[in-house]
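Hi V.,

You were right to ask for the full record rather than a summary. Here it is.
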Amino acid sequence: MKRPTISTSGSIARRRSREAGLYREIYPEKSAAVPFACALLNSIPVRTLVRAYSLELSLSSHLLDHVAVPRFEPANPIHARLSLLARNAARALAPGQLETIEREVDALSARLWGISPDLTDDLLRYYQELPADDDPEAEPE
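Predicted structure:
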């Protein structure tokens, strides 16, 4: 039987509904917490972790045990901005708008986790070099 996997391809907007369902269970009392958690889970630090991790193992939700998603605090300006950005990503239609949102999500999430801008740029370059889980050129397991 094939194990369930989490796709690492796509963007915030394309993966938001699955993650929103998961985080409504974790953060049921605060609707703004759902897009906040989705933004963090779709940031370059987490996408890099997921893609690198999925090269070695079958991926499951236990990966979340290794990602420190803080409890949403509406008064925290970074938390509030990440929540707003994730909601805006779901409505992004203009060319380049989604990419601009994703870059800001990457920068703010890295700042939240204490990752320097230089290291964030390194993570993005590394992520782009890793084969995607839907990459036909990737080696079979």
